[in-house]
Design brief:
single chain; alpha/beta; 16-stranded mixed beta sheet; 18 strands; 19% strand; globular; cell membrane; transmembrane helix; Cardiolipin_synth_Firmi; cardiolipin synthase activity
């Protein structure tokens, strides 16, 4: 018969064994200190359950899959892009004052991401989903050769079906159609959703061949990129996914405020290059891989009158330890002389970004950060509130966007440089997700983004340190607890 003493020793043994296994599990894979401690908390204080969570969220991608992404720089693709680089380098270069402002940032991305800068791009900014998808669908309908689409989310709803039907039509016309989606982000959409597209000659693949989330034991590593390339000449990149909620059709979120770019010019080559690599890493058979690259990088006539915007397309992900987009954010923050304005749905910066923002604010730079007033992920939102409070205490102006849900991922600095893309200001975008951003070197376009920011302020409330301090104790506890989990959220 079991006595309380025996039960106590059994429980103690379980705790000790659980702790030893937790230590072995966490330390056998290389990760930063913050993530290490966060996982230890989960494994130690949630015996058994913690290991189930870790099985799905904690393990890294297998080296085989990582290598597939890294090695998708085959010779023919490299040669095609090198030829295009030389062509754009022969174009008129920016004046010396402009080069001094941008040079170090451009050099950073050339070094860490092999990203070349292109000039004379024409860029349209969309911050309303209805206008964006109207133009995107028009461009797709006019496609003659190829349509390449990569999204984190493509839902089986009204806009998702509208896009799919159009792609089926274009495929039946002989246009090459390839769709790459993230199986977790497109949760609820079965592979059969694309059967008719395949019957018409198109192709659709889940990113890195993850077809069933029940058997995907590495849920943490998601394809968060949003890329559309049409005929190798028109490109879209930004924060919108494909779904009715991004058009403000879900009552839960209301109006959806996001930012997306439509690009004409040489920067489209970088978007195309990223898509080709991601597609080939995800193709289920060699027959489905893209092998003859030159046709996807057509000669683009980009005279000086076509556009004046210099851009660099930068991608990052767990296939690299460099954290390219985070370093780009740090570069822009550290280069600021007057102001830094940021919009992000998730504000969970690591220590390096947190310190950079604090230094800027205490140096007299106008640092403003706008976040949503409502959550779409409870723990993530509470962590966002924690860091918003922390930065407000350090002199950063914090805005809560009140007119629906803010999903834009933008940064503008001094009216000279900026960034728009898929990467949030959080651990997940820095370390775990596959992301893509467009870095902008053009004061006219950056000024336009600043005007949009000022317009959003009219729909926002400033949240002061005093207002944070008056929050209920239970809410503060949830914020602090979520902050402890922030490295793995």
């Amino acid at each position: 018969m079991l006595t309380w003493e025996i039960i106590r020793w059994i429980l103690l043994a379980i705790v000790l064994v659980n702790t030893v296994i937790a230590l072995f599990t966490v330390f056998r894979e290389k990760r930063d200190i913050a993530a290490t401690w966060a996982w230890l908390l989960v494994l130690v204080f949630l015996p058994v359950v913690g290991f189930i969570i870790y099985a799905f969220l904690g393990r890294k991608l297998p080296y085989r899959k990582m290598d597939r992404i890294k090695t998708e720089t085959q010779l023919e693709l490299s040669e095609a892009l090198e030829a295009q680089k030389k062509r754009f380098q022969r174009m008129k270069r920016p004046d010396e004052d402009t080069k001094r402002v941008y040079r170090r940032t451009i050099m950073l991305f050339q070094s860490i991401d092999n990203s070349f800068v292109t000039q004379h791009n024409h860029v349209d900014v969309f911050h309303d989903g209805h206008k964006l998808f109207k133009k995107m669908l028009e461009d797709i309908a006019a496609a003659k050769q190829s349509i390449h689409i990569e999204f984190y989310t493509i839902y089986n709803d009204k806009i998702g079906n509208q896009l799919r039907t159009l792609l089926e039509q274009k495929a039946s016309e002989g246009v090459e159609v390839r769709v790459l989606y993230d199986s977790w982000g497109s949760m609820g959409v079965k592979p059969s959703f694309y059967d008719h597209l395949r019957e018409n000659g198109g192709q659709a693949e889940p990113f890195l061949m993850t077809r069933n989330n029940l058997f995907d034991f590495r849920l943490n590593y998601r394809d968060h990129r949003k890329i559309v390339v049409i005929d190798g000449k028109i490109g879209f990149v930004g924060g919108f996914n494909v779904g009715d909620q991004y058009l403000g059709r879900l009552k839960k979120f209301g109006y959806w405020r996001d930012t997306h770019l439509r690009i004409l010019g040489g920067a489209v080559y970088s978007l195309q290059q990223r898509f080709v690599r991601d597609w080939n890493a995800s193709a289920s058979t060699n027959h489905e891989r893209i092998e003859h690259y030159r046709s996807y990088f057509p000669e683009i006539d980009v005279p000086d009158t076509a556009g004046h915007t210099a851009l660099q397309i930068v991608s990052s992900g767990p296939d690299s330890q460099m954290e390219q987009i985070k370093l780009g954010y740090l570069r822009l923050i550290n280069a600021a002389q007057d102001h830094i304005w940021i919009q992000t749905p998730y504000l969970i910066p690591d220590d390096s970004v947190l310190d950079a923002l604090k230094i800027a604010a205490h140096s007299g730079i106008d640092v403003r950060i706008m976040v949503p007033c409502k959550p779409d992920h409870p723990f993530v939102y509470r962590a966002t509130q924690y860091y918003a409070h922390y930065l407000a205490d350090e002199g950063v102006t914090i805005y809560y966007y009140m007119n629906g849900f803010l999903h834009a991922k933008t940064m503008v600095v001094d009216g000279k440089m900026g960034s728009v893309g898929s990467a949030n200001m959080d651990f997940r975008s820095f370390k775990l997700n596959f992301e893509i951003n467009c870095f902008i070197y053009d004061h006219w376009l950056v000024k336009h983004l600043e005007e949009i920011f000022v317009g959003d302020i009219r729909h926002s409330h400033v949240i002061t340190p005093t207002m944070f301090s008056q929050q209920p104790r239970w809410l503060k506890f949830k914020q602090r607890f979520s902050r402890l989990m922030s490295p793995i959220l």
